[in-house]
């Protein structure tokens, strides 16, 4: 029979373990997840460069820019194994054959089961305010590149923002990081930023179009157990081809300024 003092110490150790163990597990898993997010941030910066280069050569076509960004981000994107019902994991890309196989699976740039793209490109400029006039804006006309002012010189540069919808892949850490960063139901002291309902609805109408549904694609994915964090990077480059206002989605104003509450 175990003496009473030993039974008390055993119970105390069990309580301490129950308190410390989840924090210790999150410390390990969270460190892994944050390291992967840092890698994704660096790749997103490079993807923004490749995307704007493709856009400068192909008349600012978004589909060309998104394909260039997707090719750079391919090694860190998750894909399903064994068909549509298989497990989803990050398949490495270590050879040309592996790249081609993964590219064929993800080239449509649509996340499986989620209404989001892997890589989204938004044109920040030039805006219609800067290049209004004819349907074609030629980058090398003397009147367009004359450095008579900051705006005149800047309007020949393509400025874009690449958004990587990065899926958090480390279990437990994905839920904690997502809830801390984006969820609305947890206390304010644990959140990074405040989202007012009316501000959120206005942002959703501008970002996703139409009336606000009360739930963003990120919240909808989180309800399915898929936690996604948007990682953004911007880049600009002087145009090497003409911009056709009828075919390129040139914004009326800078569409890349997002409020912190989004």
Structural class: alpha+beta
Number of domains: 1
Number of helices: 9
**Spatial strand arrangement across the major sheet:** 3-5-6
| Average pLDDT level | 78
Give the overall shape, derived from the CA principal axes.
elongated
User: Sheet bearing the most strands, described?
Assistant: 3 strands, antiparallel
Helical content, roughly? 40-55%
What is the rounded distance between the termini?
61 Å
Order of helices and strands: HHEEHEHEHHEHHHEE
Rg over CA atoms, rounded to whole Å, is: 23 Å
Strand content: 5-15%
List the topology elements.
Layout: H1 4-57, H2 62-73, E1 78-80, E2 88-90, H3 96-106, E3 119-125, H4 128-131, E4 136-137, H5 142-145, H6 150-154, E5 157-167, H7 173-181, H8 197-208, H9 217-223, E6 228-238, E7 243-244
Antiparallel strand pairs: 1-2, 3-5, 4-7, 5-6
General description of the model:
The strands form 3 sheets. Strands 3-5-6 form a 3-stranded antiparallel beta sheet. A two-stranded antiparallel ribbon has the order 1-2. A two-stranded antiparallel ribbon has the order 4-7. The protein has 262 residues and is α+β, with helices and mostly antiparallel strands. Residues 188-213 have low confidence and may be disordered. Strand 1 and strand 2 (88-90) form a beta hairpin. It is elongated. The chain has one domain (4-244). It has helices at 4-57, 62-73, 96-106, 128-131, 142-145, 150-154, 173-181, 197-208, 217-223; strands at 78-80, 88-90, 119-125, 136-137, 157-167, 228-238, 243-244. 24% of the residues are buried.
